[in-house]
Each structure stands twice: as C-alpha cells, then as structure tokens.
Amino acid sequence: MQTIVDIVSVERSSWQQLLRSSSVATWWQSPACYDWLLRCQSDITPFGAGIMRGDRLVGLVLGYITHSRYSIVQRFSARVIINGGPLLAPDITTDELIALLSSITAKTNAIYLESRNFRDYTPWRETFERVGWNYCSHYDVWATIDEHWRERMHESKVRKVKNVLPTCTIRALDYAPECETEFDAWYQLLSNLYRNKVHRPLLSRATLLLAWQSGMTLLLVYNQSPTSSLSEGQGAHLLGGVLLPHDTQWAYEYYICGPTVVTYAMMEWCERQGIRCLDMMGAGEPDVAYGVRDFKLHMGGTLHEFGRFLCVRSPFRYRLGKLALRLRKI
Description:
- This protein has helices at 12-21, 31-40, 71-75, 94-106, 125-130, 155-164, 180-198, 205-213, 260-273, 291-298, 315-329; strands at residues 2-6, 44-53, 56-66, 79-84, 87-88, 112-117, 134-136, 140-144, 168-173, 217-224, 236-244, 250-252, 255-257, 277-282, 302-304, 308-312.
- It is of the alpha+beta class.
- Strands 1, 2, 3, 4, 5, 6, 7 and 16 form an eight-stranded mixed beta sheet that branches. A four-stranded mixed beta sheet has the order 12-14-8-15, covered by helices on one side. A four-stranded antiparallel beta sheet has the order 9-10-11-13, with helices on both faces.
- A hairpin with a 2-residue loop joins strand 2 and strand 3.
- The protein starts with a strand and ends with a helix.
C-alpha cells in the first residue's frame, strides 16, 4: 500500500536509508539541505513530499518555493526549484512515481516546477513525461579530483593560475560571527556579478548566510602582498569566493564569483578534504554557445547531459516571465 506523506513527517532514519540506496542521491536531497531550507523563509521556503510503501520510504522530493516581497513580481516569478531531482529508490514503481509527482504538482500554485537533475534519470523519463513533466536538455559539468586533475586543465588556465597564485591567500571558512564581514564582502562581489552580467535573481544575503551557518563552506581568495597581514586587513584584496555544500564524497559549486584562481582554489580544497568529485553545476543547453561551459571544461571538467524536467502550470505567466528575463538582459 502506498501513502503520500508531507516531508515534515518523514523519519530521518528512513530518509538516510533511501539516500544510501538511491542511484540519484545528492546532498541536495539530504536532511542537511532540508534543515537549511527550513530556516530560510524570507525568499525561499522548503517544499516537498515523500511516498511510503508500507513502512518503507521509496521516493522523496525536496525543493523550494521562491518568493518576492513585491506581490506583482511574485505573480510572475513564483516557481518550485528541485535541485538534484527527486530522490528515488531503485525499485520505485511507475505507479508510485506518478503518485509522488502528481501530489507535489497539486500542492502549489507556482507558475512552474523545475527538476534540475544532477544524476541520470533516463529510467524514469517516460514516467515523468506521462504526468506533464517535459524533458529539457541541459548540461552539467563534473570534475574528478584525483592525482591528475591539474594535468587536465587547459594550458591557458594553468598560465593564469600560475601568474596570480603566489600572491594569493586562500581561506576556507566555517561560520563564525567574527567572519561575517568577509561574507558580506563576498556577497557584494556576487551581487555585482549577478546585476551586471548574469541578470538573474540572486538569493538574499540572509538566505545565503543561513546556508553558511548550516554547514556549507565559504572559500575566499585574497590577493595579498607578501608583507601584508590579512588579519589586519592591510594590503589584502578580495578577488572572489565560492559557497560549497558538500559531504564526504561530493562538493557542489553553488555560488561563485571571481577569476580563474577561485575555481582552482576550490578544486585544491576538495583535494585536501579527500573529496573525489566536484559538481561544477549547470553548463547551459546543447547547441547554444555558453562561455561558462567552455570555462568549466577548460578547468578539466567533463560534460554530462542529465537535463531538466519542467512542469508548467500557468503557460501565460510562464511565457511572460521568460520575456521579462530576456528584456532584463538587453
């Protein structure tokens, strides 16, 4: 007998067991991610459900609903984002997956729901499409952090790193109140990037601060003269940084800004931590030129096409929202 349960009712032991057995498991479907989302509330709110087969959890969806303080903006921007895709047991049945997807579709008035897959969902693609979740091609880039990862970097990237690395200071920060000024400096750089180049919504300072407080690592790179003191703030200039969700095997390039050396520092940090796989996250659509994808591949990444599943509940508002984003880029 199958039963849909709200995500707040899912027992952590069952959740962890499903994480261990699923071929599509990522940090983004973990209780740690849920605990961070649960604390946000301001511009995103956790969203999800599970499906039980008797007393066994065989599927779970964890995502978030976006918000805006402006009601008119909210009407044309509200969406459900499922980073990583649903967490599925290897033996989940077609009927169980249909029930899970149908339940979360009915739970929200969002314009659309989007599953951003970080693993291969090919075995379940037909089932997704049967219930209105259409597949969209989209790339992801992975970097294997082994003894040869530097050798896979393009020579142009190696030169850039060599030119600046000797004068750089790299700081991997777990949350501490006295380090919030450094977080703010990074967030300011990130905001400038999103406002001037990315032209897409950026999560609020409060939400990303909670992410850091919840266990993500903040990796910062400073350009510092050999005689300056970083602790005294003399001669040190913040080049950029990245926020890194991670577990013992995987790290994820969540929000990054800065030059090539920041990506190099992130990969080097993974090596020091014994993390063997770095998910460099989205790399655009096939047959569409995308400089970010080229950069990630030149850093030694490999291309994967796991795609996305998109369920549009309000086609008119969806089209209008896409038009607004295009106009914003002009």
